[in-house]
Amino acid sequence: MTGSDLRPAFHACERPAGPRMTPGRTVNFVNRWLLALLLLLPAAPAMAQREPVLEGGRTGEVLGQADAAFLRWKAEAHAPGLVWGVVRDGKLVFLSVHGVQDVDAKRPVGPTTRFRIASMTKAFTALAILSLRDAGKLSLDDPAEKYVPEMRGWRYPTTDSPRIRVRDLLGHVAGLVTDDPWGDRQQVLTQPEFTRMIAQGVPFSRAPQSGHEYSNYGYALLGRIVSNVSGMPYRAYVERTILRPLGMNDTGFEVRDVPDTLLARGYRWENDAWSPEPVMRDGAFNAMGGLVTTANDYAKWVRFLLSGWPARDGADAGLVKRATIREIAQGSNFVQYRQRPGGDATTCRQAGAYGMGWRIGVDCDLGLTLSHGGGYPGYGSHVLLLPEAGVGIFAFANRTYAGPSAPVWDAALALLKAGELRGAAIQPAPALVEMQQAARAAYTSGNLAPLEGKLAMNFLLDRSAENWAKEFARLKTVVGECPTAEPLAPSGNLSTAFRWNCIRGKLDGQILLAPTTPPTIQALRFTPQPN
């Protein structure tokens, strides 16, 4: 698990991050255009330190400092190799590699080194399910047993237990027990063996739809649903409909197909030494954690997901609709508090829930976050998406359950504090602009005449025109006339906050429009801020 996990500490598939780090020394930078050149160069000498590839300017400086924190994390977590990257505005703007992919051969990690990313695979499984839903081949509210017949004989924990829906498996609310680290070792299970396992039924941890409990078994069932509904193996469906269209040609599920020269071998750290983990073949639990990918390829996945935000007009011809991408952020209603990962002294607690292959949080500094860790015998990983800012940060390591969540989140906070994490400004709807201008005219004139024809039917019932004139007069005694206004801060197309600059202070307020055609003002509120 990761530091942002909602599950108890003993679970394994998304294991605890290593020691928390803070940025240290600043590394040298190279300009973004060197990225292509670096990928063409021969491998660096064994154990040689490579410099990060990043864009210049303040962003490059901040990420360079964060790179030092990743190096410290790597050392204290005893990870042989590490790669991390930052996607921003649809581009891979930072890529840094450290250490070796093979302890014996001492091959250095590179942008095309293959890592297993464990539970970060679940996001691909969730999108595969949603794509089949979009194609009309399944419903999220259908019983899962409709697509997996072996589940029909399951004995539920109570007579009033609801049948498990596809949606319940996506959000880990099917009542199945948290199954790390057992689930990790089911990777090699054959499909016939999995069929027999399903038919035997399961002991339930709780009634379905009564609480969140992370289940690898549940995502393996989703993989079986993808296979049965699509008519092809889960692996083939994901490769054909997601990986290849995105150009993720170095990504797949069968680790044994990866040349030794390109594979980050998985290691555990025990008895003060690295020991190789067994190489587990692709099997029936691949939908919960079997993907093998590279930094270069994974950046394409992050770029694709971030392209779903914000909602907008225009062509919508991707793998799935943009609205479907945004749907992954719809968490279940089992919201819990969690501590934000990282070493920031002002770390806040988040309200978080599980969406569809993602942990969804509302962070007090970063806003909407989508994150997930990956823990697996020989590997640890973490990814953080900040869709409102168009930024994604990810990291892979090749040590058992060494998930670098702390430095990933610290890098995001470093960008924020440096003023380099700016979301696209929300443009106010024309109706809001018009209503604010009319409200300012009303304030200046001291009466509601400029708002004639722009008020909803409730407005004067809630407060008379005479009392509004008195309110305008009272506000002017506090802050005076307000000759200028700052840009609107809309929360949607029909509501906005505003600030007017006045002679003796500020006048803050809100405009809320009614659901009428055309829109009219249902509420207007003022809060004076005198000097």
From TrEMBL:
Q: So where does this one cross the membrane?
A: none
Please report the stretch or stretches of sequence annotated as the Beta-lactamase-related domain. 75-415
Among InterPro entries, the record links this protein to: AmpC-like, Beta-lactam-related, Beta-lactam/transpept-like
Record-given protein name: Beta-lactamase family protein
